[in-house]
Write a structure and sequence with these properties.
Strand order of the largest sheet: 7-8-9-10-11
Mean pLDDT: 82
Number of helices: 11
Helix content: 25-40%
Organism: Arthrobacter globiformis (strain ATCC 8010 / DSM 20124 / JCM 1332 / NBRC 12137 / NCIMB 8907 / NRRL B-2979 / 168)
Protein name: DUF559 domain-containing protein
Order of helices and strands: HEHHEEHEEEHHHHHEEEHEEH
Strand content: 15-25%
Largest sheet: 5 strands, mixed
Shape: elongated
Distance between the termini: 60 Å
């Protein structure tokens, strides 16, 4: 029987592993009902690899999962983002693993974890622990996009995470949670919102404007900013059509419109539009001349 009661009648060890990231401990296979003979036959035929005593894997297994099993550890922090489909700004250079011991191999970013990891399958920490490690480990924006992604999907409670981050040593992590908001449709919107505010803009997000619809940002009451990119639209013609719609609609109500290229790096987005977007003072000036302060 599989965990949860599903039968394994007719299933091969390779099928079982493919459902669990391509790797498992011998104990997992035995608990699922496979005999040592079945496991040995799969290894002898080359379908399974026995990379280390008690650890079995498919040739295409998730490398982090294999490393975790071999190290008696669990995947966490940014290395676990893919498992939970969280936003990430950068792929990890090295695997982030958590363990209750200090014997993790070189080339691994280690995290402490005092719970039982032997039963985890796949070997990934629960979401709350993954986010705690990310908040303690990663640069601000990198941990923010992970936390905000989970928060927007209703998978975490910010106050609960704060309670897991007590004391002065976790002050930076709690400060990141203070930046989390609802409403972003992508990590680019999250990053842009934080950077705009840090550069002195008055920022409103997901604002509805008559004749235009919802826009990503309204800065200082007069400048519409859209996070654009072909990847956010069905096709290039639709992408260009949306840009024209925004420009025409903005002009009709006396606002200015610009767009950030969603295909550019989040830390250095490409502005496509009025240079007013580069200066809060310039935007304030354009707001005074347009008379659209009621939107701020």
């Amino acid at each position: 029987m599989e965990p949860g009661g599903a039968t394994l009648d007719g299933m091969q060890p390779t099928e079982f592993l493919s459902r669990h990231g391509g790797a498992a401990r011998l104990a997992h296979l035995r608990r699922a009902g496979f005999s040592r003979s079945q496991i040995g036959q799969a290894v002898n035929s080359g379908l399974l690899l026995n990379s280390r005593h008690g650890v079995y894997q498919l040739p295409q297994a998730n490398c982090d999962f294999v490393r975790a099993y071999e190290s008696n550890a669990a995947v966490t922090c940014v290395s676990a983002a893919g498992h939970y489909s969280l936003w990430t700004l950068k792929a990890p250079v090295e695997p982030h693993l958590a363990a209750c011991h200090r014997r993790l191999p070189r080339g691994v970013r280690s995290h402490r974890f005092s719970g039982n990891i032997s039963t985890l399958q796949p070997p990934v920490l629960p979401l709350k622990d993954v986010l705690i490690h990310a908040l303690q480990c990663l640069p601000e924006l990198e941990s923010l996009v992970m936390a905000e992604c989970a928060y927007n999907r209703g998978e975490i409670d910010l106050d609960f995470l704060r309670r897991l981050l007590p004391g002065a040593r976790n002050g930076r992590a709690r400060a990141v949670l203070d930046l989390v908001e609802r409403g972003s449709d992508s990590l680019l919107e999250t990053v842009a919102r934080v950077l705009f505010r840090r550069h002195g803009f008055d920022v409103r997000t997901q604002v509805y404007l008559a004749g235009i619809g919802y826009v990503d940002f309204l800065l200082n009451g007069c400048l519409i900013v859209e996070i654009d990119g072909v990847g956010f639209h069905l096709n290039k013609p639709q992408f260009k059509k949306d840009i024209r719609r925004n420009n025409v609609g903005a002009a009709a109500v006396g606002l200015f419109c610009t767009s950030l290229n969603g295909n550019a790096p989040p830390t250095g987005p490409c502005f496509q539009g009025p240079t007013a977007a580069q200066s809060p003072k310039a935007v304030q000036k354009c707001g005074a001349s347009s008379g659209r302060g009621a939107y701020s």
